[in-house]
What does this fold into?
Amino acid sequence: MTTIDPRLVFLARAAARLILVEVEEISPDDALSGMACPTCGASPCVNPSFCAACRKADGRRRERNVVPAIRPTPSRLLKKLGR
Ligand SMILES: [Zn+2]
It folds into this structure.
């Protein structure tokens, strides 16, 4: 399953709302009213420093879960397999 970075979702929504403001489809207030914290979902965020710490921790976890590079098959295993 693909995980979508909630920060990128937030930024994409913000960019789309900026375009709507620029073409005068919505007011700046309307654009901001629907924006929520990408971590807790509150608008405005109830605890920005806590949510920032959570995002930072999530980022570290994502870095640890990076799929390791493909390693060559050990030669002793290849010998056992007759290759
Ligand atoms: Zn928040």
Remarks:
- DSSP finds four helices and no strands in the chain.
- Residues 37, 39-40, 42, 45, 51 surround zinc ion (CB under 6 Å).
- Residues 6-64 form one domain.
- Helices lie at 6-22, 28-33, 48-64, 75-80.
